[in-house]
Amino acid sequence: MRALRFPIFLILMSLALCSVARAQTLVIESWRTEDQALWDNVLLPVFHRQHPGITVKFSPTARALYDQTLATRLETGSAGDLISCRPFDASLALYTQGHLQALDGLPALRHFPASSRIAWQTDDGRNTFCLPLASVMHGIYYNKAIFRRLGLDVPGDRAQWFSAMRTVQQTPGLTALALGTADRWESHQLLFTSIGPTEWDGERGRQALLRGEARLTDPPFLAAWTTLQRLSEMLPHGYQAMGYEDMIDLFGRGLAAMRPGGSWEIPQLRSYRYLELGVFPPPVRTPGDTCQVSDHLDIGIGINARSAHAEQARLFLEWLASAEFTQLYANAAVGFYPLADHPVTLGDPLAREMMTWRQRCRTTIRLNAQRLNRGAADIEETFWTVNAMVLNRQLSPLAAGIRLQKATAGAPARHAESEKPAPKT
Asked: For residue 175, what is the enclosing H or E element?
């Protein structure tokens, strides 16, 4: 018997080495460096247990460097197998350049409604190149303790909101709205595209712009910039020199009563021990109106066209579309809402509250995300700058509309027959 043990040992070792040789390693490219622990410790271990022959590694790049670095890696053939996709034009450009595989026919796509696929499809809707992963929502956070102390009710309409803010502004040591303009993007993505849909009738107004039936100099859009000007009176002293993290901290420490923000901020705001956090949707203009909420398509996942492990990558996408992943992700990535059609139960009460807005409010996406950004180079940053200047009282609403209408004038007209509505998931 002893004589047989050595050959058996060699056979077992050979089988183990063959198994290792057959194992495939996939790499996920992403701009979300803050999600490293989420993927490493929560999400990927579940996939690895079910698929022991496939190893997936999350390998993010700093947000500011992601687009350029990814483009270089794709050109040189050194990019990962799985690509985190920004919505609309950035990913469409990668697809038209031949860097992303078409996913048409992938069974996983049946779990995603057409309204969530539009951010990762060609303009005619015929080709899908990224699997929808998550959206983010926008609202107004508020400090419940401050509201109680000042006897304030949660505002439902615009008049109630401004009345509450004026009460806060008259209280020593407090500011009404925690937002600064130093980083510019907050003025646009957290404020303008959050409160603006109330003025331009959300998705109807956005679609009218895409069809060329409306202009940014029309009264509904000018009304949004007029509201921005009014809100500048509710910001903290010196807000022009304050940025994103400054305002998170100001609100978190209880020095501001409200903050326009995104659902992704929930975990960071939860870290402030004494902050009693609440949230409400952007107030309507007139009592009885239906609220309008930005439920923005944010993250997709695609497959590198040059991946040597395309079959394994498609298997991973099937797992991302599963009910198991959807439930896991919804609670692990608090504030990011899965786009698959599986029902989910959310543990965080604030995230759960925001998700109910999908049923009681009309939803849209950020105004310029689809097609309008093609009008001129760096149009997204132009929106940032213009909205910051309006808040800084350096630009009038009419001047803002004229400047952005001119910048977006070259955007291709949207064909009615290819239109699909923004998400109502």
From this structure: strand 175-177
The two tokens of residue 226 are: 């007029």
C-alpha to C-alpha distance for 295 and 193, rounded to whole angstroms: 10
Residue 314: phi and psi, rounded to 5, are -70, -35
The CA R_g of the chain, rounded to the nearest whole Å, is 24
Among 307, 325, 354, the domain boundary falls at 354
E strands in 264-307: 277-280, 292-303
Instruction: Looking at the structure, tell me whether residues 230 and 240 fall in a common domain.
Output: yes
Q: Are strands 277-280 and 131-143 parallel, antiparallel or unpaired?
A: antiparallel
At position 4, the amino acid (one-letter code) is L
Domain contains 179: yes
3-state secondary structure of 134: strand
Interval 235-268: pLDDT, tens: 999 999 999 999 999 999 999 999 999 999 999 9
User: Whole-prediction pTM value?
Assistant: 0.89
Per the structure, the count of domains in the chain is 2
Q: Are 93 and 84 in contact (CB under 8 A)?
A: no
Q: Which domain holds residue 109?
A: 2-133+297-354
* φ, ψ dihedrals at 30, nearest 5°: -160, 160
Residues present in the chain in total: 425
Burial 166-205 (b: 16+ CB within 10 A, else e): ebbbeeeebbbbbbbbbebbbbbbbbbbbbbbbbbbbbeb
> Which residue type is seen at 60?
P
The one-letter code for the residue type at 389 is M
CA–CA separation, 364 and 191 (whole Å): 14
Which tens digit of pLDDT belongs to each residue from 172-215? Answer: 999 999 999 999 999 999 999 999 999 999 999 999 999 999 99
How many whole angstroms separate alpha carbon 34 and alpha carbon 84?
A: 14
Q: Last residue of a domain, which of 337, 354, 371?
A: 354
Q: What is the dihedral of CA 154, 157, 162, 168, to 10 degrees?
A: 0
Residue whose C-alpha is closest to residue 248's, from 275, 269, 231: 269
Cβ atoms of 220 and 110 closer than 8 Å: no
Q: How many other C-beta atoms can be found within 10 angstroms of the C-beta atom of residue 32?
A: 18
Q: How many angstroms separate the CA atoms of 422 and 118, rounded?
A: 8
